[in-house]
Amino acid sequence: MKLQQLRFLDAVVRNNLNVSAAAEELYTSQPGISHQIKLLEDELDIQIFERSGKKLTAISPAGNAILEHVTDLLNNVKNIKQAARDFSNHHRGSLTIATTHTQAQFILPSILQRFSQRYPHIELRVHQGNPKSMCKLAANNQVDFVIASEVIDERGELVTIPAYHWNRFIVVPNDHELTRAGEVTLPLLTEYPILTYMLGLTGRSQLDKAFLQAHLQPKVAFTATDSDVIKTYVRLGMGVGIIAEMACRDEDTDLSYIDASHLFPNSVIKIGFRHSRHLSAYQFEFLHMMAPYLDQETIRKVTESKTAQSRESLIEEAEVPSFRELKRGLSEHS
């Protein structure tokens, strides 16, 4: 059994049994991967994949049984390399983050600026996408951290640390009638076309839940992944925008922002990472920058805790800050 064969096996599974895609990812040939997997099956005397002709159609029961061990082994290989790197050259390496557009645009810039000043030789990589796919990257150990507010706790492989909580603002042109309303209510919002985030993004589920619990059906006329795109269509008069408070900018002088925190529950941005991964000193520092309300010793205890309950007990003793409190703290460090 060779480590390369296990890497091939892992890549095929991650690419939905598409050997061509796995070969492209690993910069090798499709026949080479197929041959090595067949050699591995012969050595183990099992069939890892079910086939229809030459096409892989499913993972066999025996294949499922060994795949967990393959994933753990490959993760341990990465941990060994990371641990060695900490001692050989702890000022060099990379930090890979998977997150949503909102976090990449409005939260990470000031944090990564501070980080790069402290660790100028660490390469920074930011992947943007929907929370489910970003969480999958973290669960597969393909990125160091995922930062999101949706579905992050659904992945049992991830340790999560709350960074801050936030809410929403209604955005309309300055002359819109909602700017003259005494108090905006959910029934009042249902009278207008609503422009907001796509399902699965930036707390959208909390927004839908609030209307559902009030037995109201909002008229969602437009969805996007980008707050600035939503604002563009608000300016065109297509409806009332509901966006994350992080996306409210003072320079938007032609728009009015109306606090909607009385209408919707808070959402929490969390940082997630695979529980079995080794964290370097600079990765611990990044966690502390994202969650400064926790001291580094507490963060270390959280990462080493074996159960979600023990992690929660460590965190609940501290108060998770609001976005405004986090922003104030970041401004003081800039």
Structural notes for this entry:
- The protein has 334 residues and is of the alpha/beta class.
- The chain has 3 domains: 3-84, Orthogonal Bundle (Arc Repressor Mutant, subunit A), CATH 1.10.10; 90-153 and 271-333, 3-Layer(aba) Sandwich (D-Maltodextrin-Binding Protein, domain 2); 168-259, Periplasmic binding protein-like II (D-Maltodextrin-Binding Protein, domain 2), CATH 3.40.190.
- It is 45% helix and 21% strand.
- The protein is built from 14 helices and 12 strands.
- It has helices at 3-14, 19-26, 30-44, 61-88, 101-106, 108-118, 131-139, 186-189, 204-213, 227-235, 281-290, 296-304, 308-315, 323-333; strands spanning 49-52, 55-59, 93-99, 122-128, 145-148, 158-166, 168-173, 193-197, 219-224, 240-244, 255-259, 267-274.
- The strands form 3 sheets. Strands 4-3-5-12-6 form a 5-stranded mixed beta sheet, sandwiched between helices.
- The radius of gyration is 23 Å and the shape is globular.
- The termini are far apart.
List strands and helices in order, with pairings.
Blueprint: H1 3-14, H2 19-26, H3 30-44, E1 49-52, E2 55-59, H4 61-88, E3 93-99, H5 101-106, H6 108-118, E4 122-128, H7 131-139, E5 145-148, E6 158-166, E7 168-173, H8 186-189, E8 193-197, H9 204-213, E9 219-224, H10 227-235, E10 240-244, E11 255-259, E12 267-274, H11 281-290, H12 296-304, H13 308-315, H14 323-333
Helix pairs in contact: 1-2, 1-3, 1-4, 2-3, 12-13
